[in-house]
Amino acid sequence: MEIGAVSDHAVSGKTEQPLSLHTIDSLEFARTGRLLKGVVKLAQLSRLADQLLDINGSLSMKLQGKHEAGRSLLHMQITGQLVVQCQRCLAGVSLPVQVDNVLQLIGAGEDWPDEELMDDQMDAIEADAALNVSDLIESEVLLALPPAPRHEDCELPLAAVNNHGSVAFSALAALKKH
């Protein structure tokens, strides 16, 4: 898997260091205030691609590590456009993607912070020394998708409703008579 057009550098005057395009040490990334920007092709995100009608596109992403008030954080921003199937008319519907999440990193054996998570200001994930950035992007986008996408002004085709509806109910009526 490849993240194209990636700018990988440290921020706040820290020295520039190479970073794997596939995985990061999430706690180190947050502690050192690293920044990762890039473009990920939709075709490379297999779980997401299964939900799409068109996989010819990409998502832009920015991942910023932070360490504030004793907490290690990842600020993730993802933008793009997806084409999914309308659940009403079954045609393609274009959905804008705008994910802007702060993820608190929780080390192994640490307590999960209920109070911060309750107000939806941030989510929490387990810290990982080999966090796959593409998997994280894919998971965040999948969570942002509506459960039943549809056009704003979409209606069921009347012919399909009338034809299929009458056949289905006539079969039920015939069963009820017997």
Structural commentary:
This protein has 178 residues and is α+β, with helices and mostly antiparallel strands. The chain has one domain (3-177). It is built from 5 helices and 9 strands, in the order E-E-H-E-H-E-E-E-E-H-E-E-H-H. Strands 1, 3, 4, 5, 6, 7 and 8 form a 7-stranded mixed sheet that branches. Strands 2-9 form a two-stranded antiparallel sheet.
Please render the helix and strand layout as text.
Layout: E1 3-10, E2 23-24, H1 26-31, E3 34-41, H2 46-49, E4 52-54, E5 58-68, E6 71-85, E7 92-106, H3 114-118, E8 123-126, E9 131-132, H4 133-144, H5 158-177
Parallel strand pairs: 7-8
Antiparallel strand pairs: 1-3, 2-9, 3-5, 4-6, 5-6, 6-7
Report a brief summary of the structure.
With 178 residues, the chain is of the alpha+beta class.
List descriptors.
two-stranded antiparallel ribbon, 9 strands, disordered N terminus
